[in-house]
Write a structure and sequence with these properties.
single chain, alpha+beta, Alpha-D-Glucose-1,6-Bisphosphate, Chain A, domain 4, seven-stranded antiparallel sheet, about 40% strand, globular
Length: about 160
């Protein structure tokens, strides 16, 4: 596959950019909205290029681990990270629930100041992926709005309290 699929979601939040940035970069706030409907545990959050965000989402007796390695941190404008499925030792691995899911995605989040509001754009695309992983991601993109959209709705509610 020559062209890689790119998932994009845009949202305008009724909060100043500094507040939205804080909700994405303060692990206590991030855990409140990231992964709606599950318990989100942030095991590590080192917000700098090369730093890691180790994340666990738990529901019932199941959990999903992921590791994000920050590539770019430009307050309050942009975050870029490599988002990977990992095993119990935080090593990049296949996702046990979706074996053909890409091991690593490149995620970019931009924050645009719109007077008292903030425009957020999130993009994700597979990197170093097999054809099967690229196809799996492309087929899943239509459903990704539900998860991110739910998280963004919780984020909007959280922002109203900050």
């Amino acid at each position: 596959m020559a062209d890689l699929p790119v998932y994009t979601i845009d949202r305008i939040f009724n909060a100043p950019r500094a507040v939205v940035w804080r909700a994405w970069t303060d692990p206590q706030l991030l855990a409140q909205w990231y992964g709606p409907g599950v318990d989100t545990i942030i095991h590590r959050f080192d917000l700098r290029p090369g730093g890691e965000w180790r994340n666990e989402m738990r529901w019932g007796d199941k959990s999903d681990l992921s590791k994000m390695v920050f590539e770019e941190v430009t307050p309050p404008e942009k975050l870029v990270w490599r988002h990977s499925s990992v095993d119990a030792e935080w090593n990049v691995a296949s996702n046990p629930m979706m074996p053909d899911w890409p091991r690593t995605l490149l995620a970019t989040v931009t924050f645009k100041e719109l007077e008292a509001r903030t425009g957020v754009r999130l993009t994700m695309t597979p990197i170093d992926a097999s054809d099967a992983e690229i196809a799996c991601f492309a087929n899943a993109m239509a459903g990704m709005d539900k998860g991110w959209g739910s998280g963004f709705t919780v984020l909007e509610e959280l922002l109203a309290t900050l």
